[in-house]
Amino acid sequence: MDEQQDQAQITQSRSAFSMSCGVKLTIEASAKTVWGILTDAGRFPQWNSTVTRIDGQIREGERLQVHAPGTDRTFKPKVSGVVRDRRMCWIGGAAGVFKGVRVFELTPRGDGSTDFVMRERFAGLMLPFARRSMPDFGPVFKRYANDLKREAERTGGTQALAS
Questions:
Q1: The whole model's pTM is what?
Q2: pLDDT (tens digit per residue) in 84-139
């Protein structure tokens, strides 16, 4: 296995009224396995150290309530753009004022593994004020991706696919 496949690659950018963060990681499991984990709201806290609870169903048009450790805030994104085993978006906030868009993408590879990409962009006139209370998403995204990789490879890694 290529060493870069083992490492979560983080990208970040900032400007006055926008901020983005992304992570890319190869997971030794099928896109179907990864998708099943990403869309099972009830099991999120069992594998994901960046989420304590998700209320709602992760499916097209649903409004979620996402609870993160260390804060009393509840994030309420709407799920959209769902393409089973491939892509979905979580969108929250108000356009122009403060909006966050998180995109999840899965790309199957010829060897049975999956490239996982998650990126989020925050934008709006209130971002300069909100930014002060926001964490550095780089370490959070890296932890999220590594947690997902660990769970997907534990439950349905490419070794299981080959047998």
A1: 0.90
A2: 999 999 999 988 899 999 999 999 999 999 999 999 999 999 999 888 888 899 99
DSSP the chain: --HHHHSPEEEEEEETTEEEEEEEEEESB-HHHHHHHHT-GGGHHHH-TT-SEEES--STTPBPEEE-TT---EE-PEEEEEETTTEEEEEEEETTTEEEEEEEEEEE-TTS-EEEEEEEEEESTTHHHHGGGS--HHHHHHHHHHHHHHHHHHHHBHHHHH-
Delimit the domains of the chain by residue range: 3-156
Q: Which residue has the tokens 């990681």?
A: 25
- In CATH, which superfamily holds the domain spanning 3-156? START domain (3.30.530.20)
| 2 CB-near residues (< 8 Å, 6+ apart) | 26
Q: For residue range 67-86, what is the model confidence (pLDDT) as tens digits?
A: 999 888 899 999 999 999 99
